[in-house]
Amino acid sequence: MEFRIAPDHPCLPGHFPGRPLVPGVVLLEHVIEAAQAAGAPAQACWRWPQVKFLAPLAPGERARIELQPLPEVVAGWRFRILRGTQLLASGELRAA
After folding, report:
1. N or C terminus: which one in the chain shows less Cβ crowding within 10 Å?
2. Which CATH class name applies to 2-95?
3. What is the pTM of this model?
């Protein structure tokens, strides 16, 4: 799934003045949307047993989410968020 956060998104003011960056929680929100598109329950409560943020995403930049199902979990994925070939974040998402 590809996405980009518009420069006028309401999450950006104050995060950070003069050099806005997309907050990690907004990136994780897109991971949930990708998981739901892959068949995750729409109203699930989510656990994030592992998340690493490695590089920032600026407003207007394109990113993509790659999901890999976790075999031992009914609704669970390993995820990677990339900008081109650069890894921005990775981790696991599991339905509680």
Report:
1. C
2. alpha beta
3. 0.92
DSSP the chain: -EEE--TT-TT-TTSSTTS----HHHHHHHHHHHHHHTT--TT--EEEEEEEE-S---TT-EEEEEEEE-TT-TTEEEEEEEETTEEEEEEEEEE-
- The residues spanned by each domain of the chain are 2-95
Q: How far is CA 53 from the centre of its chain?
A: 10
Structure tokens, 18 = 């003069």
* Whether the bond into 53 is cis, omega within 30 of 0: no
Query: From the centroid of its chain, how far is CA 37?
Result: 13
What pairing do the DSSP bridges indicate for beta strands 62-69 and 2-4?
antiparallel
